[in-house]
Amino acid sequence: MGLVNAFESSFAGNVPTDAVLEKLRAAEADSSCSLEFRGESALDPQLRGYKLTSDDVQALCSALTNEPTAVKELHLVNLDVSDADCPRIAELVAKNRTLEVLNLSGSDISPAGLSLLAPAIAQSQTLKGFIVRGCKVGDGKGMEMLVDGLCANASSVLEELDVSNTDLSIDALIQLRTLVCQQGTSLKKLLMDRPLLKGSKNDFAPHVGDILKHARTLEHLSVRHFGFTDEGMEEIADGLTRSNVCALDLGCNRIGRGGATLIAAALRTNTALKKLLIDHNHIQDEGLLALCEALLQTSGVSLEVLDVSFNAILGSVGHKTGHLHQSGLVYLAQTIASTPSITEFYIWGNPAVSAVGQLDDQAALLMGKLLASGGYRSDVCAYEVDGVFRLALQN
Predict the structure, then answer these.
(1) What is the pLDDT of residue 386?
(2) pLDDT at residue 55 in the model
(3) Most buried of the four, 3, 132, 162, 339, by CB within 10 Å?
């Protein structure tokens, strides 16, 4: 019958928009298609301002369930997908043999809706990515059923789980720790940013340390917006010293100079880490200097990406750091030039780069030369005015 005809027939008399049909026709013609529908439909020229309704979503899932397709990814982002739509989505996951990624970010699904999806997600033999970022499903029976199901299914192929900004409770976080540390798990990427924690923000830090130590398949871990302080970094840094994780995102916490120094000490023994994001913290020049020293003094460094944007790095104008009277950013430029593995760095939002009256001329000069040499990706670009280098935010 074809995907387009199956979609039209599912409306039982209603006429779907031509814009949706155009995407489905493209899906029929593409052997490895990704279907994407977003609530911000004005950004999608194909949809011309049309936003999928609940009826559209159910008809789409029905068509994908009953008609053989090659659709590998389905993104239903910021749409009015509710618990009422979950049985149809669960049926799609259970019966479709090509779907590898399901993205329901920003939906109106509750823990009850997730409990309807959980058995199909946990038992799927094709689904590799499940994303529910922004859905308030993190505290309740649904998350428990999902994690328990994944723990029980040794043949699960799920590699990416994004439960960021879902109001995760401490109990749910501990369950996720158990899942990723379990022998035989397939998870490679876990994002659990902005949980809903009560009490001390560092209570979960030991569990993050355990994840770093014992999760043998995990490659990417994101723990943004946890509120971790330098005290919590002790446990996390200890785990990092013996970790196989390639990407660690610690952005938007409360890490200061002491916490950055602990991370730097861990980097002296960890050569697996390729991506370190520590943006939107408060590591200052001293913390950045400690990270740079660790990178320069450690053999076998494999770090490729370093993000220290928005970290109150003052540079030489703010104060003397005690390290050859250099600012953190000057030392960073020298470190990047001496560390062949680093190809990306992000520094915008620090007073030494972007604050009028506090600009670090020497750092701007060295960063400008570094960027001019080519081969680097960054959030800044260099320009010259009257013989003086300045840095601007890259578009």
Answers:
(1) 85
(2) 85
(3) 132
Question: Would you give the distance in Å from CA 28 to the centre of its chain?
Answer: 30
Residue 257 to residues 214, 240, 261, 264, 271: CA-CA distances in angstroms? 27, 17, 6, 10, 22
In order of 101, 190, 217, the CA distances from 221 in angstroms are: 19, 5, 11
Spatial contact of 264 and 291, defined as CB atoms under 8 Å apart: yes
Single pTM value for the model: 0.91
Tokens of 333: 């430029």
**Pairwise pLDDT comparison (47 vs 238), residue with the higher score:** 238
Token pair of 109 as six digits: 């699904």
Q: Beta strands 388-393 and 380-385: pairing type?
A: antiparallel
Q: Tell the burial category of 325 from Cβ atoms under 10 Å away from its Cβ (0-12, 13-18, 19+).
A: exposed
Q: At 239, is the secondary structure helix, strand, or coil?
A: helix
Going by the DSSP 8-state scheme, the letter that residue 272 receives in this structure is -
Distance CA 10, CA 7 (A): 5
Taking CB atoms within 8 Å and a gap of at least 24, the contacts of 44-48 are: 46/19, 46/22, 47/17, 47/19, 47/20, 47/23, 48/19
